[in-house]
Amino acid sequence: MRAWFKWLTKNNHILYNPASELELPRLERRLPKHVLTIREAETVLAVPNPAEALGLRDRAILETLYSTGIRRMEVINLKLYDMDVDRGTLMVRQGKGNKARMVPIGARALAWIDKYLTEVRPRLIVDPNNVTLFLTHLGEGFTRNRLTQMVREYVDAADIGKRGSCHLFRHTMATLMLENGADVRFIQAMLGHAKLETTQIYTQVSIRKLKEIHEATHPAKLERSNSDDGSTDEKPSDKTASDSNASTDGESSSDETGDSDDPSDETPSTNSKPSSDDGDNDDEPPASALVPK
Fold this sequence. Notes:
single chain, 293 residues, mainly alpha, hpI Integrase, Chain A, three-stranded antiparallel β-sheet, 6 strands, 41% helix
């Protein structure tokens, strides 16, 4: 509408532009609905059966999405010459807005792609001149809907309680890298965002580090005490930062009473996951995450 009135004014069809001071509402920036944890991502990656030709191809595609965070059409448009194994990079030549960029790709993803190129792609190729990296069973490149359907089926089959497709891995890569200390500008370069504000939305999703800092520094914690029957009771702490620094003449030392001010005696928030004896950790990938042999 503003462009229309601007054109009318410029061509002297109207005397002034009534929409010159019109303010349009800002587009809502929604947070990603779902983001995978490390273990959830590895669970999805382990769904395809690499013993089958198409399963091996699909594993290579999922690994590429997870490692690089590139968009659906960027995966579809990848060519054989876009991958540089020696430098560990991937050239995205037809990104959003037809902007090319180079992104790093992990050694594990490269290993799966190499296995696909060696064992599967020669069996799928129909036209020898076709340089598309990932091919369907018909020897053609993927369509957008076909790739979306394939990835969504693997996410659903993983039964992790979350839904999504190609963009789910894009959100996951950006969030996990931020949580592990990557600078937001590096994430911007990988995702191909023109504006930093678009990338900064992931800083709102990356809550794990903020939660750890909150639990470590907030004075309101839970105190754990052992009862006579061996059970553990937790009660809110009425001790504040000022109370911990103050002492009275009538108080006995901690050595006499057996009490300790060591923070390790206080449990973190009840939302924290207890450690298990088998060493299960959401931050440790399962054995299926190993590179192909």
